[in-house]
Write a structure and sequence with these properties.
Distance between the termini: 35 Å
Helix content: over 70%
Radius of gyration: 20 Å
Largest sheet: none
Number of domains: 1
Strand content: under 5%
Shape: elongated
Order of helices and strands: HHHH
Number of strands: 0
């Protein structure tokens, strides 16, 4: 294994074990806070039609971002070999 390949594996391991999970956790927390703020009744009462359309879009974006972070975090926790083994049982 060359030095470039070993550095690649070190960086890959660092990103997959430290950076990506931290980003996912911050993303989940941030999107939960967005949903708490955006789903308040008091906020929704004072909107006109155009603001409500943008509001629905922001809520949908927060939900989709949060789901992406949750699913990606799950793929970081469960090794790919386990997923392949499980899928091979059903195929």
């Amino acid at each position: 294994m060359s030095s470039v390949e070993s550095w690649y594996h070190v960086v890959e391991r660092l990103v997959n074990r430290a950076v990506a999970p931290a980003i996912c956790v911050f993303g989940i927390i941030g999107n939960l806070l967005n949903l708490v703020v955006l789903t308040r009744k008091r906020l929704q009462c004072s909107m006109d039609r155009m603001e409500k359309s943008a509001h629905v879009g922001l809520v949908a974006l927060a939900i989709s971002d949060m789901m992406f972070c949750v699913f990606y975090f799950c793929t970081l926790i469960v090794p790919l070999k386990v997923v392949r083994l499980t899928l091979s049982l059903f195929i």
